[in-house]
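Proteins fold reproducibly. Consider a sample protein:
=====
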Amino acid sequence: MTTYDDRASLADLTSTAERVRQSVERVIEGKPEVVRLALVVLLAEGHLLIEDVPGVGKTMLAKTLAKSIDCSVQRIQFTPDLLPSDITGVSIYDQQRREFEFKPGAIFAQIVIGDEINRASPKTQSALLESMEERQVTVDGTTYALPSPFMVVATQNPVEMEGTYPLPEAQRDRFMARVSVGYPSPEAELEMLDVHGGLSPLDDLTAVAHAHDVVKLIEAVREVYVAAPVKRYVVDLVSATRSHPDLRLGASPRATLHLLRAVKASAALSGRDYVLPDDVQRLAAPVLAHRLLPTAQAQLGRRTSEQVVHDILQRTPVPATHTRGEVPPGAGARSF
């Protein structure tokens, strides 16, 4: 267990996160917000879903983040014939010792890259449910703990593309945030040709942080101060999704917890040990939108979940206290 003296300071957190950010942006150019969200999810003990068309760097972002941190890494290529035991592991009978021996699957790593997760069958996708929520795997009645830190970075193609299975609601709800990489700007794409035209961008990449550093930073993020009005603001936003006329399924209580953890990590990355409403507004769409199901009428009107979240942000009153520049009493003197 991490003791108080072992916890990272705010300066340690920002400096380490800055090194990781710079390392990732050496490969993923022109996408600072995408890189920042990946760091937020890592420090908030969440899982990241990267959704976009093929070839825009989804898998490269996951690989770069994993290689920038000295953690164990496993990559799973999801295909229609992938079995749940390929992910979780399987017990094999050892005839010499006359007992079953557990062979761990690819999920037993600190950073697990699930490539094209929605190309596997729903049965195989469900093999991730326990590990993502409880950070453990149960096989043949025996439970095995997963290492710490533990993060699943999954990529998926849009559901209208050939050979994809939509992720079940329970699976999407376990991802803290969803991000779309998008196409690079012409300038960033030109620089990509100059820098990475001949060699793989991962060849010269080295780890700039260690696993125990990440664990200490996660402990530091947990101590970020959240005022009562900001907590109420988070609850009001999530509650509004459950009664919005354009949605047939709103956000779950798990979404409330994920949003709170994410905004604490975002505040820490900004060099603050307290959360502002701005942090909540910045992360509301990435954390909530992929969990929402629009009504049929909203879909006919081409109204997306992101648009609904932005509409809720416009209608929900923002807390009057602890606005930008105001430090909660005693928060500035707090140490991690």
